[in-house]
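Running this now, will post back.
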Amino acid sequence: MSVGERTPESRERLLFWLLVSFMLGWVLLPSDRPLYNRHHDWLAYGLVLPVAILWHGRALLAAFRTSAVLKAAAVFTAWMALSILWSRGLSEIGPVRGLLEVAAATVVPAALFVVLRGNRIETLARWMAGAAAVMASLAVVVWASGHRPWGERLGRPFNFEHPNLFGHTLAVATVLACWLAVRRSRSGKERAIWSLVTIVGLGGVVLTLGRASMVATMAGLALVVVLAGRWKLLILGGAAAIVGAVTAGDLVADRLARGDAGRDVIWTELLDRTRDRPLIGNGLRTDDGVVFAKGSSDFPRGFTMPHAHSIFVSTLFHGGAVGLGLLIGLIGLALGAAWRAWRRSGDSLALPLLSAGLVCL
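Update: finished.
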């Protein structure tokens, strides 16, 4: 081997750290407008995807041949990409961006399948949980100082992202931190550190007042503890939750007692707009925004909701019954694979992460 020549292992390490930076970028990089992050787009589409495809194309193809879940994901994303051809009405995204998003949804899971071996899963969990804890702490400091663009809800300190999305990010990171904390190979010091990170993440989730994020976090934490066989910890956590509900239940309930952001109106309208194309949907580029006129009960000042508030309704709108069926099949295969991984090797992370993510969808 000549000096400077990269081995398959060194290339794999590079791809792993690029994927870590891809995920950390979503947590840490500031955004200039809601729902999209220009800085993260450059990192994802300008660096991570080209390296993954050009340097690891064969390994990615081998991963698709090996994994039924990746095959199902590829079929689903291919169908959604194909639906660009019959998109109609207002374009929500351009065709290039649509294809890039489809490519990312296909390549990134396959790349993770290739590189996440041995202690790399733990390394990724450490970085993600630690970064989210830092972001949550900064957000709390900024929020406590009086800078509250989302009112009583905790948001990122330098990001336009909605508190619901911030809560989803913290939910996943908190589940990762809990998994790190309960592993039996940990020293007492490490368990204490990751337990503290778990508490910080959980506190951040609660302050976002995101109802789905709270349910996702609690479900994920409970599954981590149960699958790891830490029944005493589950009882202790349940007792703490009961105490918290009794002491602060009225305050939290008052904050959570808000409307449903027009979900019933949104879902009804999007389903109506899909009736003439129930099988194939309206196409990926078709705008799924719903306009609320001034004086509406949900948004008295008027508002255009730019998304469906549900991945299932959104998939049905864009990809029809075919797309929705492919998505449900993919979820079923992923849950089955996670369950088998736990039964076979005691993997106590995949199933909690999937469960938390499904709640957030």
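The longest helix spans residues 311-345. More later if anyone needs it.
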